[in-house]
Amino acid sequence: MLLLGGLALVYGIALDGVGLLSADEPRYASIGREMARSGDWITPTLWGKPWFEKPPLLYWMVAAGQLAGLGDDLAPRLPVAILSLVYLLLQFLVVRRLEGDRIAWISVLLLSTTAGWAAESQIGVTDLPLAATFNATVLFGLLWIETGSKRAALAAGVCFGLALLAKGLVAGVLILPLFWFAWRRWKELLLPAVAALLVAVPWYAAMFVRHGKPFWDEFFVKHHFSRFADGALLHEQPFWFYVPVLVASLFPWPTVLSLLGPDCWSERRRRILLAVFCFGLVFFSVSANKLPGYILPLLPPLCIVLAAGLAAAGSAKRQLALATLLLGLCPIIATLLPDALLYGLRRANLGETHWEYFALALPFTLAAWWLERTSKRTAAVAVVAVGAALGLLFVKLSAAPVLDQIVSARGFWRRVQPHADNTCVEALHRNWLYGLNYYSVEPLPGCTGSSRAIAITQRPGAMPALSPRQIKANETP
């Protein structure tokens, strides 16, 4: 519980220090807020129009946050952070039962402080809800395979139903390796299958009844089949895209990958986890559309397998020491982050690297080295994890003010708000448009045909700006 409390503190500090980011977070938050206001918990609605892109689990979480009075910035994020912590607790409890205390502790220390998991626990998008519910399915499925527990099978079915409500059919693909290992017990799969259907089918059925073919075409054809088969959604990347993404997502732990060995697949349960990871990595790599957050569901099984390898290794001094030294990159990451979110990583300014950054990480390096040398491996891993958590805090607190002003629309809305009744949108990037519409609640009108005297304009690669508008002769001021 001490670990969970520390993680809650790290995840929770400055959770609303940055306004909602990119196009997805304010768009999903807008849908959840509309659900809370309208009382319609079936049809996702974005500014008065049905939105069929994603299933409703995240929207329900945001709506619950709004009804709980969390406000516009915390309502989309705090439920996600809480779900992340709940999953980490579940992983510890199930892995402890299957593998023992040591591997359970190490697996949670690894996962909770990876850059991928920690970052996705801070934002209100669908990747973390899918990762948590899908991997809860995997953990309960492993428990059922190992013990035959009907309660575990039932829990796996419920979690799988939630995973289908988190991001659609992708959970049905990722779970295939688990089915492969359990196919000889297919009769016992009836209980979790019925549980999953009872959880997921009511919403899908209600949407078909209400919206019919438009829902099918948009949700399934466009955002499932077409998203996998072609790059029409403009997220096309090369096959090897997820190799560097995986290494970055594991920061500061990619050094532990060198400990992958026979101990990681010596037990059937570990082979299942490795199969889930490998199958998922190939599936996402083959898909035409790729985004970094897509592979988040693969981090928990990988971290459990890595924990087994780390626990069994003869020595891990070099791996743990290098992991702590990598924490010296945190100031560089904090500097890089605004540009990376604005222009993409390739165009971001790396800034200068100073040896002092790595000197700050040196005490953690020495502590991890000494603890490992004295055969206190779990404590050594914990030292690295504490350093990683502090690095996350540093990045959050130092980058937040910049992100809020130049990446999130929240800071720009504060400038627009005093003139909102006389402002229209002339040209604005979609990321800024969705964010501005979220914070304005009622979207500002376009300038075409409008008599408003102030225009929001944005040139490619530049920040949005307010400027006086030349009113045409046929427009009444």
* Count of domain modules: 3
How many beta-strand segments? 5
Low-pLDDT ranges: none
Order of helices and strands: HHEEHHHHHHHHHHHHHHHHHHHEHEE
Helical proportion, percent range = 55-70%
Q: What class, by secondary structure content?
A: mainly alpha
Span of the ends, CA to CA: 62 Å
DSSP summary: helix tally: 22
Q: How much strand content do the residues show?
A: under 5%
From the alpha carbons, calculate the radius of gyration and give it in angstroms.
24 Å
Global outline:
globular
Biggest sheet, strands in spatial order? Answer: 3-4-5
**Average pLDDT taken over every residue:** 91
Main beta sheet, described? 3 strands, mixed
What do these coordinates show?
By secondary structure, this protein is mainly alpha-helical. It folds into three domains: 2-313, no CATH class; 315-407, no CATH class; 409-468, no CATH class. It has helices at 2-12, 24-38, 57-67, 71-74, 78-99, 101-112, 115-120, 127-147, 150-167, 170-174, 176-182, 190-211, 213-229, 242-249, 268-286, 299-312, 317-326, 330-343, 355-373, 377-406, 409-416, 430-440; strands at residues 45-46, 49-50, 423-425, 454-457, 465-468. The chain has a three-stranded mixed β-sheet with strand order 3-4-5, with no helix packed on it. Strands 1-2 form a two-stranded antiparallel ribbon. β3 (423-425), α22 (430-440) and β4 form a beta-alpha-beta unit. α6 packs parallel to α20 (377-406) and α9 (150-167) runs parallel beside α12.
